[in-house]
Structure formats: structure tokens, C-alpha cells
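From the thread on structure requests for the teaching lab: each student submitted one protein with a one-line request. Submission from student K.M.:

"Model Quinol oxidase subunit 1 from Metabacillus litoralis, C-alpha cells only."
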Amino acid sequence: MEFFERFAIPHPSLPIYIAMVSIGLTVIGILAGLTYFKKWGYLWREWLTTVDHKKIGIMYLLSALVMLFRGGVDAIMMRAQLAVPDNVLLDSQHYNEIFTTHGIVMILFMAMPFIMFFMNFVVPLQIGARDVAFPRLNALSFWLFFMGAMLFNISFVIGGSPDAGWTSYFPLAGNEFSKSVGTNYYMIAIQIAGIGTLMTGINFITTILKMRAPGMTLMKMPMFTWSSLIASAIIVFAFPVLTVALAMGTMDRLFGTNFFTLDNGGMDMLWANIFWVWGHPEVYILILPAFGIFSEIISTFARRNLYGYKSMVGSMVIISLLSFIVWAHHFFTMGQGALTNSIFSVTTMAIAVPTGVKIFNWILTLRKGKITVPTPMLYSLLFIPLFTLGGVTGVMLAMSAADYQYHNTMFLVAHFHNVIIPGVVYAMLAGFTYYWPKLFGFMLNERIGKWTAWLMSIGFILAFIPMYITGLDGQARRMYTYSESTGFGPLNMVSFGGAAIMGISFVLIVYNIYYSFRYASRDISSDPWNARTLEWATHTPVPEYNFAIIPEVKSEEAFWDAKKKGHVLFKGEYEKIHMPNNSGLPFILSCIFFVWGFSLVFSLWIPVIITTIGIFVCMTVRSFEKDHGRYISVKEIEETESELRGA
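Reply posted by the TA:
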């Protein structure tokens, strides 16, 4: 029994038991459904072994949506706990676990895969490519992310969730104060997912620089492709820092090293510095592609080209550079000294300038535009004032002297949600709605979509504006309860109501998908929005090879100019197309990584050794494998094109 006791939940409760049962029933239901409908072969051939960037993008999307609801439930539970004084809905330990997992799930396992969905599905189409540069590496990137996410999410039913906060500061995250395996899950699951993300960054830098259509110079690339290139560059520079930090933290916990301990030469502030050297650029890994999505949507529905193209590109480059020299504003109150605080205060304020440039670019794009406001545009228009409010409060926090008042209060919580939700979540939902017809061949319902956007915005304002007030009044973040005498109760109840309204809006998204799947017309064109970029120049559904003939680009908005100015995009005859073969090796390797990570969490050294050998065996097999892909014949292309034109 001693062996099995290590897998027990150290702080069980009714919600955790319910989660255990629901996970078990869900797994049984999926396995039974696949068996009953005889879909195991289809699942293996079409999804588990695919290297098609479009299908990999869809898998990122599905993962992100599941994690959105997982993190959303955590958020509702936290707001419910704080809705009234002296609440006993959650005990302190369960609140700490939910608080920790909410942050990680939303940032790394929801927002990141949502961005990766757009990059995977859209970028190759926007640059006129047939796939990414390294298709198998792309598949491995997804499956490592997915297995890292699954490893992290089983923690709360096997062994216990991490509970040291989403930043996992030492010494709280050390063995002395975090005795369960929860923080082991944190270190190892994020490590596995992070390796996959780093591979994605390398892949997309190569894809964008080397696989653009003829005539598409860097300064003719669509803005989303530019934002993806810059975000990928940040990934390549920032994620190795996280890899090193997690490796050091893992060694402290499992092998007794002293990188971040309070004795034997350790430095707890070393973790804080390394974490935020990665953590602040991570914000811009999310926000820059979101800016790219807004740029595409605003330009499309203003019916004019993006104002200040070069300044938009320049501002993103400047933001990416400044993102690496602002990390110390996270510890203005930790005794760095006036000079250091002043330097990082100035760099933090400076990042508001190129961000402000982009706001003016979008506003001036709208000026004199023939504006229509379908659901994607509604999200984009709501984003501008809400995000600007978050940016202004960021400048307030950048003042190091004033930060002594704001730091570690709900004011800070309100600020970063005020940036991330309008800046990233709205972009995701706008882009999700915008690209849905290209993904699935029918439109989402406009009326339900607009109800969702307005409800979300009302809920957002009610949920987070009160936090600015309670934060200024002294409500500290991370507190799981408070007394009635503090006076925080009424505003926290308003916040809970806002969170509940936001929850309803997310339920409406699910209902919209269901309703549109049943009732939406399938008789739509390949370009239902009258868009401007190349992803809309191909068929819906997009064929495996994307373009039968590679387009030739003559302007910044190649597809728009082909429609309005008569530019010829597709010249020449059909030729056979080289495509990569599917491979099960990325999925198998990621499964081995999952077992390796689980074994490492619980210090099961024999399985760790076996799976480590398995990882190297898979890498060796791939190194000696001779797979030159396959060709799609001209006849097959003609048949596919004829069928799609007929559809």
C-alpha cells in the first residue's frame, strides 16, 4: 500500500471526487464511442498520424477550447469563493491549487494553443505555401504540447495539483513548503509542452523566411504573418530560458540541488529573475499574433488597406526587443534599489509607445472606411477601448514608486486580465469566428455571435473593474477569504456576477457551434467575408496541397488586388505536387514522453530509465528512416479541383 499512497490526493474534497468520476466517465465514453462506431482506424490514419498543418491546427483549436472551459471553471470557483466574506466553499489549500492551475492553464495550455492554431492553419495559406517547412516536427510539436497539457491536468486527481502560484516562486515551490508532487507536475509538464513550443518557433521562422510565394517579399507579407514571425523569434530566444529554469527547479526538488534554496548557496530570487526573463516576453508571444488577427479583421471589414503598414511592422519589432528588458518590474518592491527600479520603470513605460502606435493605426484604418460590423469586427471594435484601459493601468504600474501601492493587490489582477482578455481572448474569438467558414464550410450564426460578444464585454467590465477599486482599497491577491469588516464584499459579489455572465457567454459559443452545425447554410463561397489575403484565394474546404498552382504575388494585398485590379494570381499548368507522408512516430514519441514525465513526477526511476531509452530509440529510428514523401499526380489534382469547383 505504501507504493500506491504516493498517488493519493493529499487534500481530497467533493469537487475533486466529482472531477475524478467525470474524467473516468469521459474516457470510458470516448473509448466506447470509438469502438462502437469503428473509428479507431480513421482516428489513427487521419488525425493521430497526420502531418497536415491544417489538421494539426484544428487539433490545437480543440485542445485550446477544452482548456478554455477547464480554466474558466477554475475562475468561476475562485470568484464564487470570494463573492462573500468568510466563505467556506473552498478551503485554503483547494483555493491555492485552483489559483495556480487557472493561471498556467489559461496562459500556456489555452492561449498558446489558440495562437498555434492560427499560426498552423493560416500562415502557410497566407504566404502561398503547401505546408510548413518541417511537417513531422510540426506534428511532434503538437503532440508534445498535448501530452504536457494532459500530464498537468491529471495532477488534481493523481497526486495533487501544484499550489505555489502560477509563477511557482521559490522557496514556496521547494520541497520544504510544497511537500506534495504538485510542483513536480508543474516543472515537468510545462517542460514537455515548452519543448514542443520551441520546435514550433523554429519551424515557423523557417517556413516564413523560406517558403513564401514568388513575389512575396517581407514587406508584402500579411500582418498576421509578420506578427507570427516576430512571435516565433521571441519563442526561440525566450523558451530556452524557461527550459533551463524548469530543469534547475526539477533538480532542486528531485535531486536535492540548491539553485533556488535559502541555504547552501541557493538564491530564491534567481528563480524570479529567470522566470520573468521568459514570462514577460511570453505575454508578447500571445499579444503580437493577436494584434495580427485584429489587423486582418479590421482591414477586411473597413474595406481598405491597413493604415501605416511599415509603422505596424516597426512597432512590433520594437515591442519584441523591449519585451526582453522589462522583466524586473515584477519585483519593484523586492529591494532592488532606486537606480534599477528607475531603469526598468522607463523601459516598461517605453513599451506603451509602439503599442499606442498600433492603436492609432487601427483607428486610422477605420477612418473613411466603408465599415461593416459582423461578429469578428464587433470583437475587434470592443477590443480597442477595453485594451486601452488595460494599457493605461499598465503605465500606472510601471511607475516604481506608485507600484508599492498597487503591487500584490487586486489592482494588478485587474490590470493583466484587462490586457489579456480583450487583447488575446477577444482576438481568439474574433479570429475563430472569422476563419470558421474556411475551416468547416459554413458560417457561425451572427445573431448568437453578437449576443456572445456583448454579454462577454458586459461580464468582463463587471468582473474586473471592481477589482481596481478593491485593490486600491487594499484587497491583496491570493487571499482565499476576507472578513466582513474590510468592506470588500459588495464589489466582490459584483465581480462574481460579471464572471457568471462571462461564463454564460462561453456557453453561448458552444450553443452557436451546435446551432450553426445543424442549421447554417453550406452554400457559401470560398471568400464569404470579401477578404484581402491569400488564405481566402483557395477552395473551401482547403485541399491537402492548399494551392494547385503556387500564387504569384505583386502587392501587399494580393488577393484583394486580384479581385479589384485584375492581378493574375495563378499562372501556368498543373504539375505533380510533392507532399510528406503521414507518420505515427511523433505520436508514439510523445506518448513515451508522457510516461517519462509521469514517472519523473513520482520518482519511479526504472520507468524513467526505460522511457529515456525509448525516447532515444525513436530519435534514432527517425534519423535512419528513408522517407522521401509522395507525389499527387496531375490527374488527381484535376479531379480534386473539378470536384471543389463543383461544390
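TA comment: DSSP finds 21 helices and two strands in the chain. Strands lie at 577-579, 630-632.
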